[in-house]
């Protein structure tokens, strides 16, 4: 915008005002200063750059200097300082307001997009403004750290700078939602989401990132976003500590919990007898969890629980005796492992199911 010619309307009365100041020694009046602020706002709204506007004002000022005495020159410079300061204040005020309005529009669009609100056709039209073509499939990655992040946080700026520096615009939308970092990218550009996950994990001091599956259309963004949120929720309940989770790898868990009552019955019928053990069911459920998480290798499971192999083996025998299911038997193992997953998802034995 700096190269555009500045219309005379933005300097109307400026030269005459300077002449009066030089002749009388007065300062600019309140009305004059407010008029300058208003012109600054109008100039900003018209897309005129502040540098070009200041140069034009200084050019008019220079035309007045040759005929001035030393005292008048001092008065002139004082008036110019006041005038340009007021003009710039108005220009900056308009710019700030425009930025806030743009942020509000962007935030409203993001809320509508991620919550599935608004007419889908209208949403697709609005998406073009932010670089998204919702006729394509998109996938969403969500990063969650130890503390909430917002758009102005250094972590957000760091991730955004890294991603845009690596991939440019490329129809990518980076934002925050409910204290989490969110990246929306075309479904065929998995490299963008993987890179985002790496950067977000580092910027949030080891936060966890979940990536939803690609889905087509405006509703597909919502679907992928919800998959990513559900993956983070599952990771919390199942104590999954992988830095990057993919919803596609966790599809078995929603299937297992689709019939909650059936899962609750399996947990109680299979693991319920462990409540009678000394110390309750929790230590023995943790034993099974470590056993299955370590690939059913007793030595590795014992190490994870800081137990000797002998003590760990004794626990497995105790589980077999109480439940009638042998963790070493492939058929029994499937039932026990499914029940343990259900217990973790339902919060048993701490919560009644």
Automatic annotation (TrEMBL):
It comes from the Bacteria. Residues 116-234 form the CdaR GGDEF-like domain. Residues 284-340 form the PucR C-terminal helix-turn-helix domain. InterPro entries: CdaR-like_regulators, CdaR_GGDEF, PucR_C-HTH_dom, PucR_C-HTH_sf. Belongs to the CdaR family. This is Helix-turn-helix domain-containing protein. It comes from Streptomyces plumbiresistens. The lineage of its organism: Bacteria, Bacillati, Actinomycetota, Actinomycetes, Kitasatosporales.
